[in-house]
Automatic annotation (TrEMBL), chain A:
Gene3D superfamilies documented for this protein: 3.40.1350.10
Pfam families: tRNA_int_endo (PF01974)
A molecular-function term among this protein's GO annotations: nucleic acid binding
Domain of life assignment: Eukaryota
Organism of provenance: Lipomyces tetrasporus
Record's protein name: tRNA-splicing endonuclease subunit Sen2
Annotated tRNA intron endonuclease catalytic domain residues: 235-324
One GO term of the biological process aspect: tRNA-type intron splice site recognition and cleavage
TrEMBL record, chain B:
Top enzyme category: lyase
Assigned protein family: Belongs to the tRNA-intron endonuclease family.
Catalytic residues of the enzyme: 173, 181, 212
UniProt name for this protein: tRNA-splicing endonuclease subunit Sen34
GO biological process: tRNA-type intron splice site recognition and cleavage
Residues of the tRNA intron endonuclease catalytic domain: 146-217
């Protein structure tokens, strides 16, 4: 099994290219000229050949009263790969995280490929589970004393490795296109915060309305994502937190699987486990409203146990919500009205934390 | 306050907002006949680390006390005001000899009516002189979602203990906690009360991680019962006797861990 070079695959922390400017020596006219050239012309020239903009599609759900964004997804394979490899954005709709459905399907449809390179986290899990199952079976047999009889143990060995005959399923035929390649049926779904970050903060993605095909501009997108325009709208409060940690260099991913709002990875999921589980709590200037939103000890104890059980630290992220926001604020002005502060909460047991 | 039935009533001491049982016989009765285990909270002087093995008194949850009172098997003794009554008696008796006599008298009457109980509480205080609270003192618990789910499970023979360490309101054991691990992390909700999906995910995950299931349930108000009946007739639980639980919906959540 070949170990992949993670640093080479995931070399960029965000899907942007950074150009280092040359040193500027003010009294040297050549240096100044070169500096200006690098500063002004190179980005301008690169604007055409540099990276193409990514494309995402926004799906609206409309009822009699208003429209809601139901999903924002990327369906081009190149864009999906780019978003995943640089910054770990989104989630494959057919995969656990990394959009590897096509790869896995191609592998599955191939005849007995044997030991191949592991490319998807699903495969790592499957392999680990299979190994665990073998171990458990062996242990159970050992406990029964079956292994003490050599004749039986040979029989067990024989049973351990059944050659799996892959049945050809009718529905598998539809997975290939006319050239025999696996069709790309998977999309990369972005959370609203991710999509807005890519569109507003990084400005590298174009989001189109799925039905009309119109380009959704950033202010219009914001209006769609927070239709009520209230200061404590869950989108804006979560976006403030998302933007905050992305700005500090963390890889921020949704933490719903651990019962928290966000997970913070130092570099990204392939490198290490998330270190922190972030819970977003809006903080109002009106104290009685804070009391109303108060959560109980059961909640705190439960979340802390889940997060602590997977060796993460629970971060309570308080977002100070302004009293009112107006539609004519720019996004930047809007974000400046919010304040973020963190509190770490840890379960502490005297007898277990002594050493 | 003492009448004939009262001798059979279990006295639950109400001290500073908490409910305690000091009498070992009462504790046995609660455990064997009413499957209420409670939590031992008293320290044992002879056990050096006073954290794992604990002794009397047994502390009861408000729901346990309320259920026992509602069923007429226990009464709540307000120890705070009882204590003041005793003190008032002592202050009036300036003469030490008469005070001692009084105490002896109290002890003897105590041992006649509820002998063993006296010896486990302060010897000077007899039950006769203590102030029992009426049912209304625990009635505040009756209409809470916590009490609904507590009663629902208790009626089905579960032993129930506090569940804070698992992030839930209760833990439900299929039998005596000394014999069984708990099966459910229990969360009582009002019918139609909203809770976040994050809580569902987190609790489901936590429950499965400790080989339990997260149970959420609520009492169905009368006007919604026909809706429920239309949904699934098996979910209506038939009323039994005088118990007031006719209808309760509960669900269990477990973490499947696909992928």
């Amino acid at each position: 099994m070949k170990k992949r070079n993670l640093n080479a695959i995931y070399h960029s922390p965000l899907p942007v290219e950074v150009v280092a400017l040359p040193p500027l020596v003010p009294h040297n006219p050549i240096s100044v000229a070169y500096y200006v050239y690098q500063l002004v012309f190179v980005p301008f020239l690169w604007g055409f050949k540099r990276r193409r903009r990514l494309t995402a599609y926004l799906e609206l759900y409309t009822d009699s009263v208003s429209s809601y964004v139901s999903s924002i997804a990327v369906d081009s394979y190149e864009d999906m790969q780019e978003l995943w490899k640089a910054g770990f954005f989104g989630k494959g709709t057919q995969s656990r995280s990394d959009p590897t459905w096509a790869l896995r399907t191609a592998k599955r449809l191939q005849e007995a490929s044997g030991e191949t390179e592991i490319v998807a986290p699903e495969e790592v899990t499957a392999r680990r589970r299979a190994a665990r199952k073998r171990f458990k079976n062996a242990r159970a047999l050992a406990e029964q004393g079956v292994l003490s009889n050599p004749a039986d143990s040979e029989k067990v060995e024989a049973n351990e490795e059944p050659r799996r005959q892959k049945p050809t399923r009718v529905e598998d035929l539809a997975l290939r296109d006319s050239e025999g390649n696996v069709r790309q049926l998977e999309k990369l779904q972005l959370t609203f915060q991710e999509a807005f970050f890519l569109a507003y903060a990084l400005d590298i993605i174009d989001i189109y309305d799925d039905r009309t095909g119109d380009l959704v501009t950033v202010p219009y997108l914001l209006g769609l994502l927070m239709p009520d325009w209230s200061p404590d709208n869950s989108f804006i409060v979560n976006y403030v937190v998302y933007h905050h940690y992305r700005s500090h260099g963390w890889c921020v991913r949704n933490g719903v699987k651990f019962g928290v709002d966000y997970l913070l990875y130092r570099r990204g999921p392939p490198f290490s486990h998330a270190e922190f589980g972030v819970i977003v709590i809006p903080l109002y200037s009106n104290e009685s409203k804070n009391q109303l939103m108060r959560r109980d000890w059961y909640w705190s104890s439960g979340v802390n146990r889940v997060v602590g059980g997977v060796k993460k630290t629970m971060v309570l992220c308080y977002v100070k919500v302004p009293d009112c926001i107006d539609k004519w604020h720019t996004v930047e002005e809007l974000l400046k009205m919010y304040e973020v502060r963190e509190v770490v909460l840890r379960r502490w047991i005297p007898s277990r934390n002594r050493d | 306050m003492v009448d004939n039935d009262a001798a059979d009533l279990i006295s639950i001491s109400f001290i500073d907002g908490e409910y305690f049982v000091f009498d070992i016989e009462a504790v046995k009765r609660l455990r064997n006949h009413h499957h209420v285990a409670g939590i031992l909270v008293g320290t044992l002087p002879q056990v050096p680390q006073q954290s794992t093995f604990l002794g009397l008194p047994v502390q009861l949850m408000p729901e346990e006390a309320a259920l026992l009172v509602q069923r007429g098997v226990a009464r709540i003794i307000d120890e705070g005001s009882s204590h003041e009554v005793i003190l008032a008696v002592d202050e009036n008796d300036i003469d030490e000899a008469t005070a001692k006599l009084k105490i002896n008298e109290l002890e003897s009457t105590g041992s006649e009516s509820q002998g063993q109980l006296v010896s486990f509480t302060t010897p000077a205080i007899s039950t006769a002189n203590r102030i029992a609270l009426s049912e209304s003192s625990v009635a505040a618990v009756y209409d809470t979602p916590r009490f609904d789910v507590y009663k629902y499970l208790h009626k089905r023979g579960y032993f129930i203990s506090p569940g804070l360490r698992f992030g839930s309101q209760f833990l439900a054991y299929p039998g005596d906690p000394l014999r069984y691990h708990s099966h459910y992390l229990v969360r009582g909700l009002g019918y139609g009360e909203e809770f976040s999906l994050l809580e569902l995910v987190g609790s489901g995950r936590l429950g499965t991680g400790v080989k339990k299931a997260w149970m959420v349930g609520g009492h169905v108000p009368d006007d919604d019962q026909h809706k429920l009946a239309a949904l699934d007739s098996s979910k209506i639980i038939e009323s039994e006797g005088d118990e007031s639980i006719e209808d309760f919906v509960s669900f269990c959540v477990e973490w499947a861990g696909f992928g």
